[in-house]
Amino acid sequence: YNPLEALIFGDLKYFTGKRNKVDPPDFIQKKWVSLELAYNLTSSQRISILYGSLQGGLFCSNGVCRTIAPFNDGIKLSYSAIF
Fold first, then answer.
1. If residue 28 lies in a helix (H) or strand (E), which one and from where to where?
2. Which of 11, 13, 32, 42 has its CA 20 to 30 A from that of 56?
3. Among candidates 33, 46, 40, 48, which has minimal Cα distance to 2?
4. Collapsing DSSP states into helix, strand and coil, what is residue 76?
5. pLDDT of 13-49, one tens digit each?
6. By CB neighbour count within 10 A (0-12 exposed, 13-18 middle, 19+ buried), where does 25 fall?
7. What φ, ψ does residue 59 adopt, rounded to 5°?
8. How far apart are CA 31 and CA 70, in angstroms?
9. CB-neighbour burial class of residue 40 (10 A; exposed 0-12, middle 13-18, buried 19+)
10. Residue 32 · residue 15 · CB < 8 Å
């Protein structure tokens, strides 16, 4: 593990589909846009901050699947650890 090689990870997500927010503008109604920045604290710990919206549903990454709740227009801070 080299902290200089895995210092920051960025992710931009874009989904299409109908959102269930009260009267959003037409150009936003069917789109979820988010920007996520993550920092690897160690090889098994990670902290991330997300700004934007997530569609929600089943999300699979590296062979692990989980259900994500929809998230509309906000900031989300998360911490994950593998042990």
1. helix 26-29
2. 42
3. 40
4. strand
5. 666 666 555 665 665 566 778 888 888 888 888 888 8
6. exposed
7. -125, 125
8. 12
9. middle
10. yes
